[in-house]
Amino acid sequence: MKKLSILIQEIIKLIIFFIVSLVWLNSYLYDKAFAISLAIAISLTLEVITLFISREKLAKKNLKAAQLKDAENMFFSLATDKNATDFFFNLFSTRYKTINQLKDYLILEEQDGKKTLFYPFLKISTLEIDDIFSISKLSDEVDKIIIACNDFSVTCKQYKLKKEIIILNKYDTYNKIFTEYEYYPQVANVPKQNNFSCKNLFNTIFNKSKTKGYLFAGLILLISSSYIPYNIYYKLTATILLLFASICLLFPQNKSKKELV
Question: Following CA atoms 68, 74, 77, 78 in sequence, which dihedral angle do they give, to the nearest 10 degrees?
Answer without folding.
Answer: -130
